[in-house]
Amino acid sequence: IHPAIMPAPIYSQFDGSIWAPSNCGPAALSMALGAIGIGADQITLRLLANAQMGSSDPNEGMSWEALAAAAQASGAGTKGLIGANGYRSWGIEDLKRELGLGHPVLLLLRYRLMPDHAASAYDGDHYVVALGFDQQGNLVYNDSAGNVAQGVRRRLTPAELDDAWTNTWVGQVHTAMAVYQ
Question: Is the pLDDT at 84 greater than 90, yes or no?
Answer without folding.
Answer: no
